[in-house]
Each structure stands twice: as C-alpha cells, then as structure tokens.
Amino acid sequence: MLYILLILLVLLMFMAFFEDYISERDRLWLFIGAAAVMALVAGFRPDNVDKDYDNYIRFYYSFDITTEYTFILIANLIRFTIDNYLYVFVIYAALCMALVAYSIKNLSDLWLSSLLIYFSQYFILHCMTQIRVSVAAGFFLLALPFLFQRKIGKFLVTLVGAVSFHYSSIVYLLFFAVTGKELKGKWLVFWCSLIPVCAVLFVMKIGLTAVIPIPYIEEKLRIYETVVTKGEVSEVSPFNTVQYLRIALVYFFIWKSKVIAEHNKYIYLLIKIEIIGLCAMFLLPAVPVLAFRVSEMICIVEVILYPLMIYTVRPDWIGKAGVTATAFLLFVISLFFNKILYL
User: Fold this and answer.
1) Residue 248 CA from chain centroid, whole number
2) In the chain, count of helices (H) and strands (E)?
3) pLDDT tens-digit map of 231-265
4) Residue 341, beta-bridge partner list
5) How far apart are the first and last CA of the chain?
6) 61 exposed, middle or buried (CB, 10 Å; 0-12, 13-18, 19+)?
7) Cβ-based neighbour number of residue 321 at 10 Å
8) How many CB atoms lie within 10 A of CB 62?
9) How would you write 138-159 as a 3-class SS string?
10) Cα–Cα distances in Å, from 50 out to 5, 43, 47, 62, 342?
11) Per-residue pLDDT tens for 256-311?
C-alpha cells in the first residue's frame, strides 16, 4: 500500500506542477481519473491498513444508538444484496471523492493542485480512515458557495447531509454567521487576534468547559477530562510542527489576501474558516483528542486554500513549488510521524 500511495503522490505532484500547461479538457479528464483512482484505492484497501477498519466491520453486523442512520441504510443495503462488508468502504470512498472533486471544481480553478493537497493529508486521514467524516467534510465543502452567497437556507440543507453521515458535523452549522467580506479595519484586527488569544487561553487551561454554562455538555466534557487524566486517551498537543506551519500559512494568506482575491473570490471566507479551525485546537484543553478531530473537520478548507499560494509570487513556478513542497511535507508527517496508517 505504501508504494501505491507514493506513486499517487508523485503523479499528483507532477500534474499539479504542470497544471497550467495542460488543456482544460485534458486537465478535466486527469482530474476525474485521479479522483476515481483515489476512490478505488480507498475503497479496496486491505483490512490491516487503517485503525478503524475493524470497528466498521463490527458496525456492519451490529448497530448501536450512536450509529448514523446513513451508515445503517448503506450497511443494510449491502447485507441484503451482495452481503460483503467491503462494499461499504467502496460506497463511502466513492461518495467522498465525488463530493470532494465536485466541490474543488466549484471553488477553485486549481483542480489538480487542490486534489494534491487533499491527497497529502485528508485523503489519508478521512477517506482511508474516518470514512463517515470523509463524506461529512465533503458536504461541508459543497456548502461553501451557498455560505458565500448568503443562501443560508441552501447552506443549512446541504449541511443536513453532513450531519446525517457524522453527528459531530453539527459544528458546521455555527458557520452560518461567517461571511466572505474583505478583512479590513477592526475586523482584520479581530481575526488576526483570534489564534493568539485562544493559545493564551489554552495555556491558562481556560476552555469550553469553563465558558459554556450548559450543564449536560459541561458534564460530558468533564467526564472526558477525567478519562484523559487517567491516561485512557492519549493527549494531542496543539503546539507541534504541523500547527506552527498551518498558523504561519494562514497569516501569510491574510497578508496576500488582496492579491489572491483577484483570482479566487472565496479567499476571505476560507481564511476565516481556517482560523476558526485552528482555534478549535486550543478551545478544548480538557479534551484534546476531540479538539483535534473538530479542527481537522473544519480545516478541510485547506484543500482549496493552500493551492492559492500559487497566485502570491512571481514567477509562478515558485508558488507551485511551495504547494508541492507543502503537500509532500504533510504527506510525510501524516504517514511517518503521525502514523495514521499501518504501513
């Protein structure tokens, strides 16, 4: 499996770097073909590659009250037809890649570069591991144009699809108040200040358990905190190399936002969502694993955001080199440092 992923990485890096030299028709076919291959790789992966595979097999045979009804529907459909749990993974991989590919095409002109960024991290984390989250995140990307256009009804309806595939996607509903307006004046100061303020709150161990006076939620978070304290759940620190890189990049994009806006109208919306996603890592100091998962669900916008680096420098090959280098670094960290997959 490692060799297959490495081959895909190299091919996607090559296609992304030379994207401007490919005709639009050929680029579209390459884009569709690459997304289809990724779906096949994720759907037909061996059962010993990711950490969640056995859990999904268990869910296939025995549901509980926390299992989303979409998973139950898909699993029952497979059980009463071909009765092979492998095709649950195939269906989820196909849905995930279809949503992500369609969303990329709607949100950016840099299709192959965005697919490369997706592959380098979120394909491994979501499509090959957290398969329900992968589809939910795809629905979130699909909903972004509606959010930008302030078509809140369509935005919320699209997010119903996300929640139906993973209940934690309800966090996406909070973004209905986020707009794509330019960052300037007091609002520029506000958005630039969010990350350092949240980092200070984290160091002071002030999180949502302290500021949200909702008894049920507060109690659940404190129970999770007790589990972490006992060592039953490994702690994930927001102060790490990947986080530093992501924070540095988001401030870089703020700096270059006016230049990028000439090429992609969604830049301000993407930056704001990315900042909130990065802040999520700091807002739940008592439940770091949950904070990490929520942050990754939100920061899926990096798939669109990071390739926009190409528009920020001249000659543009420097920006392309930056995108491919970022993708390679994320890929290496995901596989060899975070060890998301068993390889």
Assistant:
1) 18
2) 17, 0
3) 444 456 777 888 888 999 999 999 999 999 999 99
4) 50
5) 7
6) exposed
7) 14
8) 8
9) HHHHHHHHHHHCCCHHHHHHHH
10) 14, 12, 7, 20, 6
11) 999 999 999 999 999 999 999 999 888 876 667 778 888 999 999 999 999 999 99
Structure tokens at 322: 């930056």
SS3 161: helix
Enter the DSSP assignment of 258: H
Q: Looking at the DSSP assignment, which residues form a beta bridge with residue 50?
A: 341
Non-local (6+) Cβ contacts of 173 within 8 A are 156, 159, 163
Question: Could you tell me how many residues make up the chain?
Answer: 343
pTM attached to this predicted model: 0.91
Give average pLDDT by consecutive 10-residue segment, the chain, 343 residues: 94 95 94 97 92 89 83 93 94 97 96 97 94 96 97 95 92 92 94 94 71 47 50 60 90 96 97 95 74 90 97 92 95 88 78
Q: What tokens were used for 13?
A: 């890096």
